[in-house]
């Protein structure tokens, strides 16, 4: 591996930008492809598939055996609202390798007793979120049911282009949320990105079951190709 | 999407910049119950110091020895380890799997 390849690889990883290192194992020749350049690459279908799966693998192309080493950032989950659902959601997400942060300005909710071993920030989203460096590899969930807390948080999620944005609330609650957000200048396209009612429809009732339905929906968003998601919807 | 090997590649870069000969070993193929998935890295410097893993600890010793050769020659190598392997590199994986490990020098021109 060339020194400059390693330096670029480390720089991309530090910036939380996904890259794939392609090595021809017959002679060691290599190239590093940034996710932004996948579209123009002759191996774009394989690159996109392996990145989506987060899996490194050997592929064959033009009679050559090429190893695709995938370097994808750790996915994060930001939960707005230290509520009962979040108490089930945080440990479940951690078991799926997400870095989890819970934000809720209400200190009675955001207490370490209720959230042992979870990064917890008892501040308003406007104060807490800018410091979290939220990016595309972040799933964002707003579950306080309180527009004063959820709405500004959702604005931040749109701005950072989170790969998943979900908000708790019935269709009626969500329609009102739409009125409020659009009055603040949110585009129709951004509003349509919110998954609401949140989670896959599996008939979830208890907080733990709702947590399962949310993580299932986040997993589908992360792993499934776009056309398969459309077909399944 | 476990962000493994975080510090391993940073260490490889730091060692190389400090003037060490450095080799990078990567699991490129696995069969059966391999302990570490494809993409796992082990980095070795010319002192024999290493970080990371390519197995549960069973073949690292052999990989380090091979890596010192790769640092000296600059030529990459593809190693195979497994229970059915009859080659000189047969140290055996206690778990019964087979892995292929690609070893390359860092800092190739």
UniProtKB/TrEMBL annotation, chain B:
Domain XdhC- CoxI intervals: 15-82
UniProt xrefs under InterPro entries: MoCofactor_Util/Proc, XdhC_CoxI
Record Pfam families: XdhC_CoxI
Name of this protein: XdhC family protein
